[in-house]
Every structure is written in C-alpha cells, then in structure tokens.
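Annotators were shown the component list below and the corresponding predicted structure, then asked to write short factual statements about the assembly.
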Amino acid sequence: VSAAGTAHAQQAWVNGLPADTIAVWDRGLQYGDALFETMACRDGVARFMARHLARLHRGCERLGFPPPDDAQLSAEVAAAAGAGAAVVKLLLTRGRARARGYAPRGDEVPLRILLRYPAPAADAALTAEGVRVTVSPVRLGENPLLAGLKHANRLEQVLARRALQDAGIMEALMFSSSGALIGGTMSNVFLVHGGVLQTPQLERCGVAGVMRAVVLELAAQLRLPVEERTLGAAQLHEAQELFLTNALIGIRPVRELEGAVRAVGPVTRVLQAQLAPLLGARGEAAHG
Amino acid sequence: VSAAGTAHAQQAWVNGLPADTIAVWDRGLQYGDALFETMACRDGVARFMARHLARLHRGCERLGFPPPDDAQLSAEVAAAAGAGAAVVKLLLTRGRARARGYAPRGDEVPLRILLRYPAPAADAALTAEGVRVTVSPVRLGENPLLAGLKHANRLEQVLARRALQDAGIMEALMFSSSGALIGGTMSNVFLVHGGVLQTPQLERCGVAGVMRAVVLELAAQLRLPVEERTLGAAQLHEAQELFLTNALIGIRPVRELEGAVRAVGPVTRVLQAQLAPLLGARGEAAHG
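Structure shown to annotators:
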C-alpha cells in the first residue's frame, strides 16, 4: 500500500469536524502530552466504550486535563466509526501550548483527534492456534505517575517494535528496568501457573489494557484464582500457559516463546470461550 | 497573553516553508516519535549550532531516523531566526505513519518543523545572584536507549513542571527511579565538592545538554578536576557549590535549594567568566 493509498483508506476528524491537520503548537506534538484509546468498532458501536472512556478519565485526572465530555466523545466516535467494521483511534491532546516550555498553564483546551482505520483482516487462526512471541531487548523505564495510562509517550514501544525484525513474530514481551515482566509492546500478558491465572501488576509501568480488565472479570466470574503480581523471567518461562490480550485481538494464546514451543492450555480455552460472546459476531475481533 | 496573541508573536515553518500545521498521521504526534533542539539565535546565527546538530545526529542514529542534512537544517534555522534575537525550536519527527501501529516501516520521510519564539527577557540578575531551586516529587524512568537524547517523550518533565506551583522557583531537580540525581526539568546540574566539579552521568536517563558539554570543555581548559558520576541526594545537599546550565540561560548559580540558602562559590564564578565571551554581546543569553 502506498502512502497515498494508506491515506485514502483512512479518515480523520479534529474536534468533531473532518480535518487531518493540527497546529504545530499543540502540546501533543511538542511533548507527547496526550492520551489515546484504540477501539474496535462495528456499525458505529465501539466495543467496551465505557471501559475506554474510564481509562481516558483516569489519564486526564493523572495528567491534569479537564475531564472529557463522554457524550460528546461517544457521539464523535460513533460518527467516525460509520457503517461496517473499523478501528477508531481517539487521541486527546492537552491542546495548544500557551507559551514555550514544559509547564502547562492550566487553561489549555484539549484537542480531540479521531482517526478511522480499516478493520484488520480476521485472524481466526491466530486465536485458535496461537502466536509466536519473543522477549524484547528493550526495557521499560519505571514511573508510577504514568503507569497504567495509555499516554502518547511511546518511544520505548517504537524501539521495541523496530527491534522486532521477524514478521512471523507477533509480539515482543517487555521487562521493566528493574527486571519485572510488564507485557507486550501492544498487549498485556497472562500466565497460568499451578492453576492460578497471573498477570503483571502495573504499578510502575505498562498499560492497563481494556481487554486485560475484561479477562480479569471473566476469571472472577469463573472463580479462577487470579493474581496481579510482580513476575520475573523465571515465572514467564515456567508458565504452563501463556496468552496475550488487547482490545482488538481479544485473547491470543502463545504457541512459541523465544523459539520454544508452548502448549495452548485449558484455562486459555475456557477464557476464550467465555470471552467470545462479548466480542461480537466474528468471534475474535468483531471486525474483519 | 491570549492564545491569539501568542500565536501572532510566533512563526512556524514545515519542511522549509511557512506553515503551522502538520498531518494528524505524523508519528511525532502519535507516539512522540521525534527529536528536538532549542537554540538561542541572534541575527540568523544559532549559538552552538554544531553541537545542536551533533546531538540531533546521535538521536537520529539511536531512533533509526535517516541522518539529517546539516546544510539544509542550518539554512532553515538561519532563515527562521531572522534579524535580532530569537529562540528557534527545531522539531524533527520520523514523519507520517505508513500504517497503524508502533513499528516504523523504515521508509518514513522525517518532517522538519521550525518554531520561532521571541527571545526571553534578559535575566542578568539571575545569572549574577542565582536562582531558587527545589527537588521534584516526580522521578525519571530509566532507559539507556533513550538516555542523553532530546526526544519528544516529555511527559515526565511536564508533570514535574506542573507540580512546581511557586513561580519564584526557577527549576526542580529530578532524581531517577533508582535514586540518582539527573538534572532539572530543563537544565543540567553541576556540583562542586572538595574542589571537584561533578555532574550526573546520563547513561540511564536525562538529556545531555549542549551547555553541559560546553561547561565540561571549559573546565578541562581550566584544568579543573571533573567527574561525571552517579550522585545521590546526600551529595546534592552537601555540595559546596551548585549551578544549572542550559543552552539558553548559560550558567545560573543556585542560591537556594529547598528553602536552604546556598553560597555562590568561586568555581561557578570562574566558569561563568570563562563562558561569557561564548554567549555573545549580552553576556547571559546572547538575546533579550
């Protein structure tokens, strides 16, 4: 796909109006002073919209943005999504800089950017058979003030994806600077160990994914023992089951970790079965 | 100053042409996938331009941007700076995203954004008498792959400046997640201890400032003993002299740290005297 072709297949809105530019003075560009959400949409409905909005609100509170207007955002996302299947990315910046320098003045007006992308091709085989995963050489810096948020400072993920040269490897798992397993570049990770479902706690870094929260709730409904905890390399490699989650892909089992074949286990399958009705008609990604 | 007023006093160029918007698809906006330099300019000449370009090249190499064209950038910075005194910020993004997702494809075309700001008012008193400084409650995440660079992932600095409510405090010193002193939100820090000039090593985080490099060279010329090393809170508070540097302000002594009065010492004064001829006519900031 050429750059022009890509642009053609995509659409953008700024503050509710069709537009595909923003001011160079925007703090989102200057400092990555922005938050985002990426939503799977079908016929104008964004899956798990309430959860996306809740995380966005947490981000706004942490960064000191005024609370967004949920009704306005929901209407704009619905309009952007349109008919059929699509991925809509909402980028909320702090707005135009009032002066030079890092300090926000506090009277900035946040900017709402909506980007509509074609839905990715369905990947039922990846959901059924699993994906190949490696461990990233890039480690994540730790900052509790930013942990859990989907903010726009994503150079670490960019570097990790750039280091991932093999197109057959879907994801790279990242550890923090202090050696804790955090998650993939664009996914959260779950382990099963001795019948217990485990996922990294995200107090120091990482993104608290919407699908991660859904899976934790499903596990509670199924009365599976669950632990959010510090996990290291040993726990990762000794896990009986491994799977990845994100808002678009649902649950994908890991069938290979750093070249070693992994079995897809029963806890993963039970959670996938429980999740399927929540994902919509197409099962995996509710679009494709 | 109103938003409109601010905009009026500022000018912007994109890829060498007057323009003040960029595409919402730019990776600089999406991920903070960008580098920047902020230069003090007078009559079209950017002070320490070669050093700014050298750091930009290091950043491009680290992030995998193609090497920038120095002649082109220099000409564009000179044109943007114009007559008189100005601050010019050069923001170099990886360019427009070729597809959704963190992975660069490698064929992106970087975007050159130049922003011209009025020169700040001269602050000779701050250079002479010193500034008041505090310690930030915000700690810096550690990532050796990004350390030293002036990249556009600056939420930590935004949060630190936001936490600094007292307008009389010029700067907040930041420690890393592992407890090492790194520098101010927009400056590097130097200590004098037992006749030795010390500054934090920046192997894990922080920005390797242009003025920091200039001061290290001046110290070598003066045969002052110099250490780039790991420094903690104890060393900060026990230092006999403290000063801050950045490309715009030169050297500013710290006259108060967290409410405690500090003496401005002889090493600081010798370095200021040595630096003054390099800063141009106005001494401190070569503009104002």
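Statements collected:
1. The CA atoms of residues 112 and 169 of chain A lie 33 Å apart.
2. The first strand of chain A starts at residue 11 and ends at 14.
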